[in-house]
Structures are given as structure tokens and as C-alpha cells.
Amino acid sequence: MTIEFESPKPIVQTQFVLKTVAEEMMRSKSRYFDEHEHEIPWDYIEFMHTAMKSMGVGSLAPKEKSNGGNGGEPKEKRPPIAYQSLAAQIEMLSWGDVGFYLITPGGGLGAAAVQAAGTSEQKAKFLARFTEDKPTFAAMCMTEAGAGSDTSAIRARAVLDEKTNEWVINGEKIFVTAGDKAFTEYEKFGGGFIVVWASIDPSAGRAGMRAFVVESGTKGVTVSKLEHKLGIRASDTATISLVDARVPYDHILGSPTVEKTTTGFKGAMATFDATRPLVAASGLGVARAALEFLKEKLDENGVEIRYGLPRQKLSNIEREFIDMEIMLKSAWLMVIKAVWMADNKKPNALESSMSKVRAGDVGTKITQKAVEILGPLGYSREFLLEKWFRDAKITDIYEGTGQINRLVVARQILGYSGSELR
Amino acid sequence: MYSFEPSEEQQMLVDAVGKYAINDLRPAAHEAEESREFPRKLVSKGWELGLLQASTPEAYGGFGERSAVTCALAVEEMAFGDLAGALAVMTPSLFATPILLTGSEEQKQEYLPRVIEGDWAPYTAALIEYRFDFDPNALKTTAKASAGDYILDGEKAFVPFAKDAEAMIVYADLDGITQGFIVPKNSAGLTISNERENLMGLNALPMYRVKLDTVKVPASNRLGGASGHNFELVLASMRIASASAAVGVAKASFEYAKNYAKEREAFGVKIAQKQAIAFMLAEMATEIEAMRLLTWEAAWKLDNQKDDAATEAYLAFTGAADMAMMVTDRGVQILGGHGYIREHPVELFMRNGRGFAMLVGLAIV
Ligand SMILES: Cc1cc2nc3c(=O)[nH]c(=O)nc-3n(C[C@H](O)[C@H](O)[C@H](O)COP(=O)(O)OP(=O)(O)OC[C@H]3O[C@@H](n4cnc5c(N)ncnc54)[C@H](O)[C@@H]3O)c2cc1C
Question: I need a labelling partner for A374 at 20 to 30 A (CA). Which of A15, A267, A381, B174 fits?
């Protein structure tokens, strides 16, 4: 091992391709879908599905198997880069448009949950669909009206019907990203699924929490509302109601019996360790878009950034710009470190939450500052900057708010449990 | 590829430096700051760790190749013990490293073995000037070519160990660019102040003003020889060293405050169990890690001669200086009134933390 900062070639190549996609397929439509919330960008979705299939990337979820095993002689073993690659792709797509990125067909958070907590049979059964003919979606349903940050407060309930050997689920989930596309049966989409968190034993608290795969179109399940949001409007945010919804026994992720441990809950947390740096990557993509736009406008107006000067000789704009660049670069390195750890199977709960804390802050600050520095141009809807400002804010909210991730970081560095530091 | 794991060799070095920092520098820091003197024995012990020697090829008396990444790791670790002590140990690098990086073959052969092979000896460099708008790329000290010599004029500040320095590199403006000149002890026109600098921190490091009044050095003493040298490379190395030291000092403050917060009780719980404290600590840890990674990347870019290495070093330096201020301030805050008392080291960390923004030129990787 050694310390190195060379972006792997395959990643650079993918970024190059995705940049064109971001410009042609996303940015050109950003404004339209910002102003037409709840319309579906079919073109983008179909394009991405076809493109990813032809590139052999069925889903944005990293593959288990190593790449390059064609049955021949074992190749020289390269260090794994699946998560690093994913983070770079997400960053670039989000540089294009975060709302669009969130409705890129593939597994999304739903598949990530299956990846993190499913058996190999379950992975085979649920994840194969993403490489089939039609674009297909999956979503993750944890949040409820009364349970956001405090996931242990969820009220959704799953009861085993011993006669039919089915789980019967009741509850209402809110704020489900891509919930509509994953659950509603659109003709152009393949059948997706949602992963619903519910308790199989409310007296057991967190130990009783399990995730269930609920196939699209399941009876008793309805998309009852689509939210109107500050930003990321191309992405649908759904309320999903489950009334006596029945799912087969083997759709439970993790053990069907409750031990007096918190393994069920830990499943959810393991998902977050994997997905938090990816959400951070997404937020940094928007931040980079904003910073590059700012640079472009400053250039146009003959404002130069004089690197190398001591602070007290810099103009205010230069100081701000340099600070933004420091924030962005260092935040990105934190993301890379967290996914590098994931790729190398090192426990990364601390690094992953740290990267999310930092990306939440940095994305918000950079977009705020960019709008401020450009004055009326920043505030105008003539440019996408004001939209990126609205889009960026979500990074500090979903996948654990900035505060929740600070709690995770603090517990890790202090060696505290959840009850020692609430 | 990306990788964030030091090599075995690097880890061994970091461990050795870490031990010295914790067992030797830290226990001596308070007394050294108060008495304005770092025990020379301790400085020698640090010198024997061989950081500079390990960065110098055998041909010039050392036993290794320079790696900015390795140096960055070592500087962070040493500054974690105590900044003044770390800077004292590394002062000879201020003279040797620029020669190693950009010196002519003759300069390397003449000076490097001298510095490297013996005990720690006061070789130093003079970059800083006593002006509010001090800028390493726009120096007021001047060098003028004159009949095969250079004439140096001006005044330098914060020059470590100048009083008994065997030789120093003086940086001066030569036709609009910064260039270094090797100035031997006792050069005519060179005066070192009797009084030491009195600063907010770093009092254990003896620093002096240096006056140059038509100091004449032969053309061969221009760093790099007749055609001069790339100052950007030297400055980038200085900035990376400062950034690494800033990370080390910040980490010292963070660790101290964290341990304190886990012991101190208020309102029936440990103060670390209060979010107001815990969140400060979480942010400190996050900022430290962010600037550490940026510094590593800059060092790696320097080692690999990437085009943007100098800019990246500037960003790492600027960011780490801010971070050190933020973190060391919070270190004091977490200890409350006790943080303000000199018995605890956090106030010294804070005084040292404030310095990084202006203290480029006191360390080099
Ligand atoms: C656009 C969008 C998409 C989303 N997508 C999904 C999805 O796909 N699936 C899903 O399950 N959820 C999703 N969410 C939900 C999101 O994860 C939650 O909104 C988030 O976790 C916060 O929960 P809350 O909104 O109930 O806020 P609350 O939990 O009520 O928090 C309110 C405030 O209190 C703070 N707070 C809460 N607890 C603590 C504490 N212990 N210490 C300090 N401060 C605290 C929070 O940081 C926040 O500032 C989405 C949300 C949005 C807006």
C-alpha cells in the first residue's frame, strides 16, 4: 500500500462519457422539468437505460463479482474500484442535474438495501430485473410522518399470516424517492419494487425492524401523494400507503425471527455506510456545477483569481472563490476515501458519515455563495445556478441530516453508544 | 489508483516520529514555551530520527529519496507533539531542502553533506519580512547583479536560529522574481539582531531579525547556480509543510479536548454527551481529516510533478491555516475557563494555530 491520488483510468473514461450525457440529456432539460414538476423525462430515462445496458452497467449498484473474469487465466489482481467508480458517476450525473440523477433507472436505494441485507438468492431474484429490456426502478421506504431521523419510531407493522405464509404489512411511508416509478405500473417501465421497513415485533424496538421487498402493483399498496418541493423537482417524492399488503415469506431481508440484538436495524445502518458517501458525491456534483458556473461568469467579466497571494492581498471575491475550491476539493477527497474503504472492505461508518457531513455543508455553502457573488445573475431563473442552490440543499437532509451524521461521527470518535449520546 | 494507506516504511517512520512527539516533545512543550528555550538535547534527539537524512540521496551523505508525502506525514506527527520543538528540529531543512530540490550540483556537493552528516547544527533560511502585506512572491529585500556578484539589501524577520547560523538562504527579489541566495556566516553587511523576536506563540523557537546592507555574495551562491531556480517549487514545499504542521497542531488540540470532554462532568453527564460539545468535536474531526487529505494530495502531486501541484499546495496551506484556527479555538472553548489557563496546552495550541496563515517559510517538506 501507499498513498496515491491518481484517478483510475476506467473512471476517467466513464466520467468523460457521462459529461456529454450530463450536458446533452440533462442540463438542456433541467429548466423544463424544474418548471413542470411531476412530468416524467422519458427520453432521459430510456436513453440511460439503453446506454447503461450497452455499457454492461445494468444498475448503478456495484456488482459483487470482480470485473474481467472471462473464465480464462486469472488476470493480475487489481484493487477493486466499484464504489469509487459509482461515486464518480453519481458526481458527474449530479453535475448534470441531481433531480435527473435520482430517477436514473436501476436499483437506487432499494437495490442498495437488497445488496446490503439480502441473501444471495434474494439478490439474484430481485436485482436481475435492472438489466432487462425496460427501464426499472426500486425505492427505499423508511421515513414516516412521525419518524424521520428517529427511525426506531416507525409504526409500520408486518405480521406473519401463518396460514398463507405471507407477511401482512400496514403503514404509511412518506418522502419515498422514485417511489412512484418503482411502484406504479407504467407501460414503459419494467416492474420495480419498493423496500419497506416495518416492525415484526414492536416490543423489541430496533431489534424488531426488518425490510421487506414489495413488488410493484401489490394489492393494498397505493401511491397516495406526490410532493411539491424546493428543488430536485424532476425526482418524484411519493407517499406510499400500505393497507393489509401481502408479500411472500421470503421477501423479508434478514432473519425472520427476533433475537435480542439489533441486527435488523444494523442492516439499515449498513446500507447507510454504503450510500452516504454516494449521496455526498451527488451533492458535490451540484456544488462543482455551481463553482464552475461562477468561474465562467467571473472570467467573462474579467475577474481573475490570483492564486498564490496571501489572504490579506486577495479581493473578497478571490477569497470566497478560493475557500469554495478548498471546500470542494477536500470534501471530494473525503468521499473518495470513504468509498475506497468500502471497496477495500474496511469498516467506514466514520468516514462515510464524515463525508456526508462535509458534503452537506459544502454543497449548501458553495451554492449559496455563488448566488450571492453573482448578484442579480445568481438570483435570476435565466441561469440554472438558482436551481442548483435549491437542489443542493437536499444533500444536508436526506440519508441522515447534517445533525444525525454529526451524531454518528461524534459517537464514533468518542466511543459512545446511541444511549450515551442522543 | 487512489489509496490512503501509508506504506510500511512510511508507517514505521510515522510511528518513530510519533513516539518522539508524544514522549519527548509534548512533555517538554510547556516549560520550553515559558522559559523560551527548547533543551538542545531534545532537539538533537529529534534530529537523530533522520528525517532530513532519509530524504537525501547517498551521494550527498544521506540514505534515501525525498518524498513530500512521507515528509508531510512526519511533519504532522511531529507538530502534534509541539510546534516550536518540531520547527527547531527541522530548521536545518530550511537550508538543505531548497538546495536538494533546486540547487546546482556544486551546491549540493558543497553544502548537503555538511548539514546532513554531523549533529544538528544551525543552518537556516530567511523568507519572512515584517510587513502586514508580506508576500513571498513580492519581496522588498532585493538582489542586484553586479560584476559577477549579487548585492543583497533589505531586512528579514522571524529567522530561526539566525544568531549562530553557519549559513542561511536569504530570499530576495531579483528583477521581479523571488530567488534564494546562500549567505555564509559573518558575511560583511549581514547583521543579526541581538533581541529575539517576541511573538504570540512559538517562544521556544529562537527567531531573529536579519539586516542585509549591501551584502555581497558570489554569483555561484544563487540557488540553482547561474540560471537560478524555480522558487515556486520551494514555496510549494514550504506550504505543504505548514499545512501538515497545521493539521498536527489541530489534531493535538482536538485530541486533548476530546479526552477532557469525556472526563469533565456538568449537569450530571459528561460534557461530551451534550450535543453542543459533541457536534463541535465531530466538526473538528471532519475539518482536520478534510485538510489532511488535501495536504496529502498536494504532496502527492508535488512528488509526481503534476501541473497543478503548486496551486494545490496553496489551497492546502490556505485551508489548513483556517482549519487550525477554527479547531484550536474550539479546543479552548471545550475546556471552558480551564482552557484559558496556561496549565492546559490548548491555549498554546490556539496561539500556535493562529500563526499558520503568516508563518510560511518556517518549515519545508
Ligand atoms: C426529497 C426527499 C427525498 C427523500 N427520500 C427518502 C427516501 O427515498 N426514503 C426514505 O426513507 N426517506 C427519504 N427522505 C426522508 C429523509 O431521510 C428525512 O426527511 C430525514 O431523515 C429527516 O427526517 P424528518 O424530515 O422527519 O426530520 P426530523 O427527524 O423531524 O428532524 C427535524 C430537525 O431535527 C434535527 N434532529 C432530529 N433528531 C436529532 C437529534 N437526535 N439530535 C439533533 N438534531 C436532531 C434534524 O437534523 C432536523 O434538523 C427524503 C426526504 C426528502 C425531503
Answer: A15
